[in-house]
Amino acid sequence: MMAFWIGTALLLVVSCILIVYPLLNPKEIDEATQRDDLNKAFYKDRLAELESEDQAGIVGNKSDLVTDLKQLLLDDIPDSKSDAKVSAEKVKWMTIPVILFMIILSYGMYAMYGAQDKVSHWTNVASNLPELSKKLMNPNGVQLTDQEMNDLTLGLRTRLQSTPNDATGWVLLGRIGLANRDIETAIGALTRADKITPDNPEIMLSLSQALLFSADQVDLDRAKDILNYLMHQPKVDLRVYSLLAFNAYNDGNYGKAIEFWKKLQAQIGQDDSRYAMLERSINTAQRELDLQSNPQSKQPQGTPVKITISLSSEVEVPKSGVLIVSIHSADGSPMPIAAGRYTLTEFPVTVVLDDSNSMIESRKLSSLSDIMVRARIDTDGNVSTRDNDWHGESLPIRLGDDVAISINKKY
């Protein structure tokens, strides 16, 4: 911050010098001498004209005209040179007002239209980066708020400008981008980390996860190549199976998704808490596979979902805000299949979502067989922030069943 103010002061000093220097050192011009030279030149020209006119017989009193011309030349001689000196002194006294005007104008305009608050926040974030990083990495710590996540992103970007070869910093930035659903930042940062530290399985795994959330087919193909490479390593990370299953399910290759989920189940064993969740995912994929082989059993196109939302006693409804209702696949994927935005009214309230609320044209709500529903009271109108928002969600259910949700949790 100090460097910023020193820099502005130096720029201001240079500007003042460029403006004030000509005032303090005016170019000395001898106006009297210049006027004398001009009068002499005029006198000589007029004498030559009179000589020509006299020879031509135009004038008859040449001597009188010459006498008058000499008198005019004498009358135009200046009395003194003091006026010029007084004028130069007055100009020098203008330097002080000019300097004051420059200072007031520069810092006044910056105070009105500059980004002083943002610069101050930026420097504070950069100095607090180690503390924010420790808070993020502490598994038993309090979850970072959206503002803290944004601050951490800003601090990391600032540090990476001076240490562009810090692979750990790029990985951290990429994972924060994933957490904030900023896929472009996540892919860019993790790609940079992969170039700095090639063939690092942990970085490659994080990169493939980011690429799978992209809408670009080139990114999706790249994710598949990375996962296939990791799948053929001597020691396969369990997350590779999960990502391969997720990718296969989104591609509609339900048989392959089931295969990967079963391999993952075999690795973790039935005592693991994730086993039951994987079982539900397998069942969902199996129903989708059955629908592919027997299309007549599919739900009618546009099956609506009726959702009744109530509030727990501790929820305080804000004066301004909106109700966000989203429908997800039964495996709890964070990306909604369909969503609706409603004004806040008295609760309980009932809403209905159907194919018209689908987020992606190629994947309609009616294409699912099992779903789960989430509801959130958004307090600031920005769906990407969740600080102090109340929310709730349902258990996995069959598409077409009525849903009842209680909003009872706070971010």
From TrEMBL:
Keywords: Cytochrome c-type biogenesis, Membrane, Repeat, TPR repeat, Transmembrane, Transmembrane helix. One of its GO terms (cellular component) is cell envelope. Residues 305-406 form the Cytochrome c-type biogenesis protein H Ig-like domain. It comes from the Bacteria. The keyword Transport does not apply. Residues 118-275 form the Cytochrome c-type biogenesis protein H TPR domain. PROSITE patterns: TPR. Gene3D superfamilies: Tetratricopeptide repeat domain. It is found in: Cell envelope. It holds the Pfam family Ig_CycH. The chain crosses the membrane at residues 6-24, 91-113. GO terms for biological process: cytochrome complex assembly. Its main location: other. TPR repeats lie at residues 167-200. This is C-type cytochrome biogenesis protein CcmI. It comes from Vibrio casei.
